[in-house]
Amino acid sequence: xxxxxxxxxxxxxxxxxxxxxxxxxxxxxxxxxxxxxxxxxxxxxxxxxxxxxxxxxxxxxxxxxxxxxxxxxxxxxxxxxxxxxxxxxxxxxxxxxxxxxxxxxxxxxxxxxxxxxxxxxxxxxxxxxxxxxxxxxxxxxxxxxxxxxxxxxxxxxxxxxxxxxxxxxxxxxxxxxxxxxxxxxxxxxxxxxxxxxxxxxxxxxxxxxxxxxxxxxxxxxx
Length: 222
Known about the structure:
Blueprint: E1 2-6, H1 11-22, E2 26-31, H2 34-45, E3 55-59, H3 60-66, E4 70-73, H4 80-87, E5 95-98, E6 103-104, E7 107-111, H5 119-127, E8 133-135, H6 142-146, E9 156-160, H7 163-174, E10 180-184, H8 189-204
Parallel strand pairs: 1-2, 1-4, 2-3, 4-5, 5-8, 9-10
Antiparallel strand pairs: 6-7, 8-9
Helix pairs in contact: 4-5
GO biological process, one term: NADPH regeneration
Organism: Flavimaribacter sediminis
Domain Pyrroline-5-carboxylate reductase catalytic N-terminal: 2-102
Protein backbone atom coordinates (compact mmCIF):
# COMPACT_ATOMS: atom_id res chain seq x y z
CA UNK A 1 0.00 0.00 0.00
CA UNK A 2 1.20 3.52 -0.85
CA UNK A 3 -0.34 6.62 0.68
CA UNK A 4 0.33 10.29 -0.07
CA UNK A 5 0.71 13.03 2.52
CA UNK A 6 0.12 16.45 0.98
CA UNK A 7 1.89 19.04 3.07
CA UNK A 8 4.12 16.21 4.13
CA UNK A 9 7.14 18.44 4.70
CA UNK A 10 5.49 20.12 7.71
CA UNK A 11 5.81 18.82 11.27
CA UNK A 12 2.50 16.90 11.25
CA UNK A 13 3.15 15.42 7.83
CA UNK A 14 6.68 14.33 8.69
CA UNK A 15 5.53 12.69 11.91
CA UNK A 16 2.77 10.79 10.13
CA UNK A 17 5.20 9.70 7.41
CA UNK A 18 7.54 8.25 10.04
CA UNK A 19 4.71 6.45 11.84
CA UNK A 20 3.12 4.97 8.72
CA UNK A 21 6.46 3.91 7.23
CA UNK A 22 7.43 2.18 10.47
CA UNK A 23 4.06 0.39 10.33
CA UNK A 24 4.90 -0.93 6.85
CA UNK A 25 3.00 1.58 4.70
CA UNK A 26 4.84 3.19 1.78
CA UNK A 27 4.60 7.00 1.92
CA UNK A 28 5.00 9.70 -0.72
CA UNK A 29 5.44 13.20 0.69
CA UNK A 30 3.79 15.90 -1.38
CA UNK A 31 4.96 19.51 -1.49
CA UNK A 32 4.77 22.44 -3.86
CA UNK A 33 8.53 21.87 -4.21
CA UNK A 34 9.08 18.26 -5.19
CA UNK A 35 12.86 18.46 -4.74
CA UNK A 36 12.43 19.68 -1.16
CA UNK A 37 9.96 16.88 -0.49
CA UNK A 38 12.47 14.31 -1.72
CA UNK A 39 15.25 15.83 0.41
CA UNK A 40 13.10 15.69 3.56
CA UNK A 41 11.98 12.16 2.68
CA UNK A 42 15.62 11.05 2.64
CA UNK A 43 16.17 12.64 6.06
CA UNK A 44 13.14 10.81 7.45
CA UNK A 45 14.24 7.46 6.05
CA UNK A 46 17.49 7.83 7.99
CA UNK A 47 15.46 7.98 11.23
CA UNK A 48 13.51 4.77 10.61
CA UNK A 49 14.33 1.37 12.09
CA UNK A 50 15.34 -1.48 9.81
CA UNK A 51 12.45 -3.18 8.08
CA UNK A 52 10.35 -0.04 7.69
CA UNK A 53 8.60 0.84 4.46
CA UNK A 54 9.98 3.60 2.26
CA UNK A 55 9.36 7.33 2.16
CA UNK A 56 9.83 9.32 -1.04
CA UNK A 57 8.99 12.84 -2.17
CA UNK A 58 7.23 14.46 -5.10
CA UNK A 59 5.24 17.55 -5.98
CA UNK A 60 1.66 17.57 -4.73
CA UNK A 61 0.15 16.30 -7.96
CA UNK A 62 2.72 13.53 -8.33
CA UNK A 63 2.20 12.42 -4.74
CA UNK A 64 -1.58 12.25 -5.15
CA UNK A 65 -1.22 10.24 -8.34
CA UNK A 66 1.18 7.81 -6.62
CA UNK A 67 -1.29 6.99 -3.84
CA UNK A 68 -3.19 3.73 -4.24
CA UNK A 69 -6.26 4.97 -2.38
CA UNK A 70 -5.52 7.32 0.53
CA UNK A 71 -4.39 10.95 0.22
CA UNK A 72 -3.82 12.72 3.53
CA UNK A 73 -4.10 16.51 3.54
CA UNK A 74 -1.84 18.14 6.15
CA UNK A 75 -1.41 21.72 4.92
CA UNK A 76 -2.07 24.89 6.93
CA UNK A 77 -5.71 25.95 6.69
CA UNK A 78 -4.71 29.07 4.75
CA UNK A 79 -3.67 26.75 1.90
CA UNK A 80 -6.51 24.23 2.35
CA UNK A 81 -8.93 25.19 -0.41
CA UNK A 82 -6.34 26.24 -2.98
CA UNK A 83 -4.44 22.98 -2.54
CA UNK A 84 -7.60 20.91 -2.93
CA UNK A 85 -8.66 22.87 -5.99
CA UNK A 86 -5.38 22.04 -7.68
CA UNK A 87 -5.49 18.38 -6.60
CA UNK A 88 -9.12 17.66 -7.46
CA UNK A 89 -8.37 16.25 -10.96
CA UNK A 90 -5.95 13.75 -9.37
CA UNK A 91 -8.27 12.48 -6.60
CA UNK A 92 -10.78 10.49 -8.62
CA UNK A 93 -11.22 7.02 -7.12
CA UNK A 94 -9.37 7.97 -3.93
CA UNK A 95 -10.25 8.91 -0.35
CA UNK A 96 -9.12 12.26 0.99
CA UNK A 97 -8.19 12.16 4.69
CA UNK A 98 -8.39 15.75 5.92
CA UNK A 99 -6.45 16.38 9.14
CA UNK A 100 -6.52 20.18 8.84
CA UNK A 101 -7.82 22.35 11.69
CA UNK A 102 -8.91 25.93 10.89
CA UNK A 103 -6.95 27.62 13.66
CA UNK A 104 -7.10 31.38 13.85
CA UNK A 105 -4.02 32.92 12.20
CA UNK A 106 -3.86 35.37 15.09
CA UNK A 107 -4.42 32.93 17.95
CA UNK A 108 -3.96 29.14 17.65
CA UNK A 109 -5.99 28.70 20.83
CA UNK A 110 -9.22 29.34 18.92
CA UNK A 111 -10.74 28.10 15.69
CA UNK A 112 -12.21 30.13 12.86
CA UNK A 113 -14.54 27.69 11.14
CA UNK A 114 -15.27 28.21 7.44
CA UNK A 115 -18.84 28.84 6.26
CA UNK A 116 -19.34 25.10 5.66
CA UNK A 117 -18.85 24.45 9.38
CA UNK A 118 -15.44 22.70 9.43
CA UNK A 119 -12.39 22.06 7.26
CA UNK A 120 -13.67 18.55 6.57
CA UNK A 121 -17.02 19.84 5.32
CA UNK A 122 -15.32 22.56 3.28
CA UNK A 123 -13.20 19.91 1.57
CA UNK A 124 -16.25 17.77 0.77
CA UNK A 125 -18.11 20.74 -0.66
CA UNK A 126 -15.13 21.68 -2.83
CA UNK A 127 -14.43 18.16 -4.11
CA UNK A 128 -18.04 17.15 -4.65
CA UNK A 129 -19.87 13.96 -3.67
CA UNK A 130 -17.82 11.55 -5.82
CA UNK A 131 -14.61 12.00 -3.78
CA UNK A 132 -15.16 10.93 -0.15
CA UNK A 133 -13.61 13.17 2.47
CA UNK A 134 -12.86 11.73 5.90
CA UNK A 135 -11.76 13.83 8.84
CA UNK A 136 -9.21 12.20 11.17
CA UNK A 137 -6.02 12.75 13.16
CA UNK A 138 -6.98 16.30 14.14
CA UNK A 139 -5.96 16.10 17.79
CA UNK A 140 -2.53 14.42 17.68
CA UNK A 141 0.58 16.35 18.72
CA UNK A 142 3.14 16.73 15.95
CA UNK A 143 5.89 16.49 18.56
CA UNK A 144 4.53 13.14 19.71
CA UNK A 145 4.28 11.84 16.15
CA UNK A 146 7.89 12.74 15.39
CA UNK A 147 9.32 11.02 18.47
CA UNK A 148 9.26 7.32 17.61
CA UNK A 149 10.23 6.44 21.17
CA UNK A 150 6.83 7.66 22.36
CA UNK A 151 3.51 5.90 21.94
CA UNK A 152 0.69 7.98 20.49
CA UNK A 153 -1.13 9.02 23.65
CA UNK A 154 -4.62 9.55 22.29
CA UNK A 155 -7.55 7.95 20.51
CA UNK A 156 -8.56 9.01 17.00
CA UNK A 157 -12.05 10.23 16.13
CA UNK A 158 -12.96 9.59 12.47
CA UNK A 159 -15.85 11.26 10.66
CA UNK A 160 -17.20 11.64 7.14
CA UNK A 161 -20.32 11.13 5.10
CA UNK A 162 -19.26 7.82 3.54
CA UNK A 163 -19.48 4.94 6.02
CA UNK A 164 -17.40 2.66 3.78
CA UNK A 165 -14.63 5.26 3.47
CA UNK A 166 -14.82 5.94 7.21
CA UNK A 167 -14.20 2.28 7.98
CA UNK A 168 -11.29 2.13 5.55
CA UNK A 169 -9.65 5.15 7.16
CA UNK A 170 -10.18 3.65 10.62
CA UNK A 171 -8.33 0.53 9.46
CA UNK A 172 -5.52 2.63 7.98
CA UNK A 173 -5.07 4.81 11.07
CA UNK A 174 -5.29 1.72 13.28
CA UNK A 175 -1.97 0.62 11.79
CA UNK A 176 -0.36 3.32 13.95
CA UNK A 177 -1.26 1.38 17.08
CA UNK A 178 -4.07 3.68 18.16
CA UNK A 179 -7.74 3.10 18.92
CA UNK A 180 -10.10 4.67 16.39
CA UNK A 181 -13.75 5.58 16.89
CA UNK A 182 -16.47 6.12 14.31
CA UNK A 183 -17.64 9.65 15.12
CA UNK A 184 -20.33 9.85 12.43
CA UNK A 185 -20.91 12.14 9.48
CA UNK A 186 -18.81 15.06 8.32
CA UNK A 187 -20.67 17.55 10.52
CA UNK A 188 -19.03 15.88 13.55
CA UNK A 189 -15.79 17.53 12.42
CA UNK A 190 -17.13 20.81 13.80
CA UNK A 191 -16.72 19.41 17.30
CA UNK A 192 -13.61 17.30 16.65
CA UNK A 193 -11.59 20.05 14.97
CA UNK A 194 -12.55 22.45 17.78
CA UNK A 195 -10.90 20.16 20.34
CA UNK A 196 -7.44 20.98 18.98
CA UNK A 197 -7.21 24.61 20.17
CA UNK A 198 -8.43 23.49 23.59
CA UNK A 199 -5.56 20.99 23.75
CA UNK A 200 -3.13 23.68 22.59
CA UNK A 201 -4.32 25.98 25.37
CA UNK A 202 -3.92 23.23 27.99
CA UNK A 203 -0.53 22.11 26.69
CA UNK A 204 1.01 25.58 26.83
CA UNK A 205 -0.48 26.40 30.22
CA UNK A 206 1.96 26.80 33.08
CA UNK A 207 -0.78 25.50 35.38
CA UNK A 208 -0.43 21.90 34.18
CA UNK A 209 2.65 19.68 34.60
CA UNK A 210 2.69 18.24 31.06
CA UNK A 211 2.70 19.06 27.36
CA UNK A 212 1.54 17.29 24.18
CA UNK A 213 -1.58 15.86 25.81
CA UNK A 214 -4.24 14.14 23.70
CA UNK A 215 -7.76 12.85 24.28
CA UNK A 216 -8.92 9.34 25.13
CA UNK A 217 -12.34 7.73 25.29
CA UNK A 218 -12.55 6.00 28.67
CA UNK A 219 -14.89 3.09 29.20
CA UNK A 220 -16.72 3.00 32.55
CA UNK A 221 -15.29 0.71 35.20
CA UNK A 222 -18.63 -0.83 36.12
